[in-house]
Amino acid sequence: MSTSLIAMGIALFLVLNLVIGLAVVSLLTGAFETLFGKPRLAFLKASQSGNTFAFGFKWNSAKEPARIDMIKVRMFNPFGSPTQIEVSKTFEPFSSTFATEVDMGPALISLLGHQNFDNASVLVEVSSRKDGISFQFDMKGVKFKKLIAQASTTVKEYVAKNKLDVVKTSKPPIDIPIRSFIADTVPGKGPALKIATNPVFAGDFAGAAAGAGAGAAAEKAPTFPISKVWIEPGCIVCNACEDIYPEVFEVTSDTCLIRAGAPLDDGLRVQEAAEACPVEVIKFTKAG
Ligand code: SF4
Question: What are the structural domains of the chain?
């Protein structure tokens, strides 16, 4: 066999090895990325029980550079379709793996305590407002509560375990007002609330849905006077009542008040507000 043939054989062997080697490396890195490159949300033990939500977050910050600065907890239909509640909070931005805790306010506690919460779908969203990136984790309400209850690693321990540079374990770094609200079924479209005087749902309330034509507006029920309206403890400041009847309800930063001299002649609107209240704290008595 000539020397040139042997040289060609060796070259071919080396090229084949190179190709196979590259394929194996590519497969392994792909599998590695799938297994370990996924964003991961860890529920951590909060330094104070109650409103505080502690969590750690890892993502591939080299592949998806972003300054993460917001956590949202969205609950779908905790009070029956079509309601959604969202509690969100911003914090000082992090551009790589981090752990922090944020004060989500009384809204979170109220929602966690609701009897229908366990079966509600919950979406935890970690995002960057500036970079438009968000990572979502969905689960049932019961699992969300379980993960909070079972969390045993503190923010400090998570930071030490992951050898992170920044430690933020004290009070929430930025005091942004907490907002929770009832959102549209599809943002910008359709009715937000299943209330008696919403023409789209009027058929349901009148018990005549089957016979009503699509989109037909049923006759509005007559209003009635009331003698008293009040708010019981537990308001989650969602603003629904003030949106419906601003002359009666005033939502402050931490509760809802009945305005001085509020009109009592339109009980139907007060009833709508009471039906829209996700935590059912609006009470009233009819006059007469
Ligand atoms: S009282 Fe008003 S603001 Fe408070 S939870 Fe009920 S609807 Fe929302």
Answer: 40-161 (2.60.40), 222-286 (3.30.70.20)
